[in-house]
Design a protein that fits this description.
Blueprint: H1 3-7, E1 13-15, H2 19-31, E2 37-39, H3 42-49, E3 56-57, H4 58-65, H5 71-79, E4 83-86, E5 89-92
Parallel strand pairs: 1-2
Antiparallel strand pairs: 3-5, 4-5
Helix pairs in contact: 3-4
Length: 97
């Protein structure tokens, strides 16, 4: 993780498929007094899946990585017409792509 970006005031999230690597990142960041927001593969699946017309199964996403979407942020994105949620799937709309 590029800690200088966090120290510079940027909100940086990280993701990896390896829980061990995420734990190491947390350990190194903690040594610098930082608490990064890190996600396992589910975030990557969500980000890549939003590009697909059929979107992403929200239940599968949550099984992989817990709650990934802040309910308030989701409502904001829905209100802006950036995403749609149908039949338990979230997808980017034309406006959100």
């Amino acid at each position: 993780m590029e800690t200088s970006l966090v120290r510079g005031g940027l909100d940086v999230d990280g993701c990896d498929v390896s829980a061990d690597m995420l734990a190491e990142c947390r350990r190194l960041a903690a040594a610098d007094g930082l608490q990064p927001t890190l996600y396992e593969q589910a975030l990557e699946m969500l980000l890549m899946g939003l590009r697909l017309r059929e979107g992403v199964d929200l239940n599968r996403c949550e099984r992989l990585g817990g709650t990934l979407l802040d309910p308030n942020r989701l409502q904001e994105l829905l209100g802006l017409g950036m995403v749609s949620v149908r039949n338990g799937r979230i997808a980017a709309t034309g406006r959100g792509r």
